[in-house]
Amino acid sequence: MVAWLSAPETVTAMTAGLYARIYRLVCTVPRGQVATYGQLGAVVGCSARQVGYAMAAVTDVRVPWHRVINSRGAISTRSDGKPDTRQRELLEGEAVVFGPAGCVDLATFGWNGPDWDWLVANGLEPPQILDSD
DNA sequence: CTGATGACGAGCG
DNA sequence: CCGCTCGCCATCA
User: Fold this and answer.
1) Which CATH class is domain A3-121?
2) Among A30, A91, A85, CA closest to A66
3) Angle at A129 (CA atoms; ends A123, A132), nearest 5 degrees
4) Which of A24, A59, A107, A121 has the fewest beta carbons under 10 Å from its own?
5) pTM (two decimals)
6) Cα–chain-centroid distance for residue A65?
7) Which nt sits closest to A50, CA to C1'?
């Protein structure tokens, strides 16, 4: 499952750490659902910016990057200042509905987060487990 | 090491 | 709801 690091020699060491976790997490987002940058960042322990930065660096086609949108439920613009139309097409192909404002209803299509088993399997402590006493 | 850069997010008017 | 500012922090020159 590390095929996206097919050329580690041409990639800086960082991609093997944070980016790999982000990509692996994105791969767990089921079809027909969407996750936000901040949500993913909260799981892997980084800011939403880093998640967006990681998505920009995705090259592996197996990573469902199109299921990652911003907190408003809209598709973030690329460096061009325009949203990637391909992303919307892919999501609509998974029965994800866009509202009149070009936004997805996160209450309906929002991802609930990774399973506990996934977190443990990836060596991540479940977030927000504040058992007082 | 220093400074600039972003597929972001929360606030504010 | 819309546009703008500021904080965020890994990455890059």
Assistant:
1) mainly alpha
2) A91
3) 135
4) A107
5) 0.84
6) 6
7) C10
